[in-house]
């Protein structure tokens, strides 16, 4: 047999379930105990028959004595005691007291009955087969052969004793004893071989059952964790089984556990029912795109395909229906396109940089020559737009190339509260939301290593996202800054929108993925990229603020002056700057603002993306 190196792969996924080691030993012990108890019950039954026979002979004829009846009674008590009070010895051991009490007692009782039975009309020789089988099946082959040899000697001795009474040898009696002994030897050998064969078959069967159970468990885990919906449907359109993804696509997150689905039960599933019915009719796999309308949530576009299983007995074949959310498929396609576009845009940006530098230099020379105010305004406009294009080129190149996890050392520390106050004021003027936004600043001493333009983009993207999902009521959007531990500042943008769907949460920070057709799906992706560039973490959670549930996007930013701001929380609680823009955001209501800080409450921030 080939030897396997310790570093090589296991020969099978289910090798851990093979019948080796402690598990195989337990299996053999259980099998041995089951057979041992079967033989002990057989001994009790034989003892009952012998006692009944002796009582019958004692009462009806003179072919039995009180001594033989007492012997049968004692044998019955002994067999019952062994069955109820004695644990079986381990299989394969050398003969012990238990084997002597069981096998030896059986041979002795049968021999005594055979020898002292009056009249000799009853032959008890076939009962010797029970101890021979017990030794051959439950013990090693030596024990079985030894029992057969002992029985043979007893039969020959009995024949010799009977013959000596008449003064001559009975050849037929000796021949009969020898044939019976030979038969017992054959029974011992055959029974032992059959027992070994059955034990091996049982071990193989147990190993196969363990492998089948392990495979079923693995299949169940894989199917349950699939993002693709899987349904098993019979010829009547009844869903026999469905994984959580399929149940979520058909009935949402609050589906009833253990409910048996019927595809024709709802009009929105009629396309799926027709697809399955047609697949059964033509006995072929089909696929199509369909839309499921939900009353309490947005409609869902799905790609559905069927596959028929082979017919099994009278039940016939089943149809396996696979459902895949087209938004996730399109998101993967968009991500692949993004990768190729990133490589292409980086090459284009390199080509744009040279002529852009030439335009900037030519405009600077032209600006030195012109004197009229109108011409000065034109050269200034050219310079501003050229600088804007240059920043766009730099951003494209920065996204295309790998970025460090921390901000570069040349980025100057930026006061967070001052920057948030400036950006929110501009954002409110541009979006005319003076009553919608509440600003609460409690990190007046905090400095962060963030580029001002990048922090502005981060805030604007998060505020635009909150505005799209907020109710529009006063104070339906809140922005809060506060210390988080001694080394971080926490920037939170909260809105009172409804909870996000599970399918949206899964791809929240991925590029080009959005729950709205008007959105490009790049806002949160850019926010995550900017945060990772400066060592910050961005995450989402449902949070309660002013007794209202809402969506919160929070950013944990490392302090640029961790040593200087270690005592800031003691001063910042009451002296923090606050911009009150709505009735619900004035200082009188600040004690109601409860936004969870993951670093102080023991809840770790969600991993980006």
UniProtKB/TrEMBL annotation:
Keywords: Kinase, Membrane, Phosphoprotein, Transferase, Transmembrane, Transmembrane helix. The keyword Ribosomal protein does not apply. It catalyses: ATP + protein L-histidine = ADP + protein N-phospho-L-histidine. One of its GO terms (molecular function) is phosphorelay sensor kinase activity. Pfam families: 6TM_PilS, HATPase_c, HisKA. Residues 566-609 are annotated as: Disordered. The chain crosses the membrane at residues 38-59, 65-85, 97-116, 128-156, 177-196. This is histidine kinase. It comes from Hydrogenophaga intermedia.
């Amino acid at each position: 047999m080939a030897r396997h190196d310790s570093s090589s792969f296991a020969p099978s996924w289910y090798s851990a379930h093979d019948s080796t080691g402690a598990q195989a030993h337990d299996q053999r012990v259980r099998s041995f105990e089951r057979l041992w108890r079967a033989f002990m019950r057989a001994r009790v039954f034989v003892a009952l028959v012998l006692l009944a026979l002796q009582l019958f002979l004692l009462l009806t004829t003179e072919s039995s004595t009180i001594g033989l009846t007492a012997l049968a009674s004692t044998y019955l008590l002994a067999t019952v005691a062994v069955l109820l009070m004695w644990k079986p010895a381990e299989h394969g051991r050398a003969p012990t007291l238990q084997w002597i009490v069981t096998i030896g007692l059986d041979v002795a009782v049968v021999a005594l009955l055979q020898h002292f039975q009056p009249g000799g009309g009853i032959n008890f020789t076939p009962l010797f087969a029970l101890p021979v089988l017990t030794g051959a099946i439950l013990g090693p082959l030596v024990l079985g052969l030894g029992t057969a040899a002992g029985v043979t000697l007893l039969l020959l001795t009995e024949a010799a004793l009977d013959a000596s009474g008449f003064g001559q040898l009975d050849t037929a009696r000796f021949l009969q004893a020898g044939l019976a002994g030979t038969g017992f030897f054959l029974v011992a050998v055959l029974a032992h071989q059959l027992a070994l064969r059955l034990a091996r078959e049982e071990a193989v069967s147990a190993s196969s059952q363990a492998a089948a159970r392990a495979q079923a468990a693995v299949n169940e885990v894989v199917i349950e964790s699939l993002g693709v919906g899987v349904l098993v449907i019979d010829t009547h359109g009844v869903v026999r089984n469905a994984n959580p993804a399929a149940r979520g696509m058909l009935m949402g997150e609050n589906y009833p556990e253990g409910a048996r689905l019927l595809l024709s039960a709802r009009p929105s599933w009629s396309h799926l029912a027709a697809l399955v019915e047609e697949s059964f009719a033509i006995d072929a796999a089909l696929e199509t795109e369909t839309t499921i309308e939900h009353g309490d949530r947005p409609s869902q576009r799905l790609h559905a395909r069927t596959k028929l299983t082979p017919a099994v007995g009278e039940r016939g074949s089943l149809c396996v229906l696979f459902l895949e959310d087209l938004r996730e498929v399109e998101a993967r396609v968009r991500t692949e396109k993004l990768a190729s576009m990133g490589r292409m845009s980086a090459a284009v940006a390199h080509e744009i940089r040279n002529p852009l530098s030439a335009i900037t230099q030519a405009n600077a020379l032209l600006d030195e020559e012109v004197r009229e105010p109108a011409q000065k305004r034109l050269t200034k406009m050219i310079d501003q737009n050229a600088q804007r294009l240059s920043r766009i080129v730099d951003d494209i190149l920065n996204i295309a190339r790998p970025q460090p996890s921390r901000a570069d050392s040349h980025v100057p520390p930026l006061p967070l509260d001052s920057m948030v106050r400036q950006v929110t004021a501009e954002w409110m003027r541009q979006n005319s939301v003076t009553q919608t936004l509440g600003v609460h600043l409690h990190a007046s001493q905090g400095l962060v290593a963030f580029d001002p333009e990048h922090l502005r983009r981060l805030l604007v993207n998060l505020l635009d996202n909150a505005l799209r999902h907020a109710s529009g009521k006063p104070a339906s959007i809140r922005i809060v800054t506060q210390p988080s531990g001694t080394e971080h500042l926490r920037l939170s943008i909260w809105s009172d929108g409804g909870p996000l769907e599970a399918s949206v949460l899964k791809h929240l920070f991925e590029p080009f993925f959005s729950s709205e057709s008007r959105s490009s799906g790049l806002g949160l992706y850019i926010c995550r990229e900017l945060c990772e560039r400066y060592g910050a973490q961005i995450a989402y959670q449902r949070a309660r603020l002013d007794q209202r549930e809402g969506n919160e996007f929070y950013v944990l930013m490392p302090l640029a002056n961790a040593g200087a701001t270690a005592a800031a929380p003691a001063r910042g609680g009451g002296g923090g700057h606050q911009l009150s823009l709505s009735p619900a955001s004035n200082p009188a209501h600040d004690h109601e603002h409860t936004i969870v800080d993951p670093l102080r409450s023991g809840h770790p921030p969600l991993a980006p993306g």
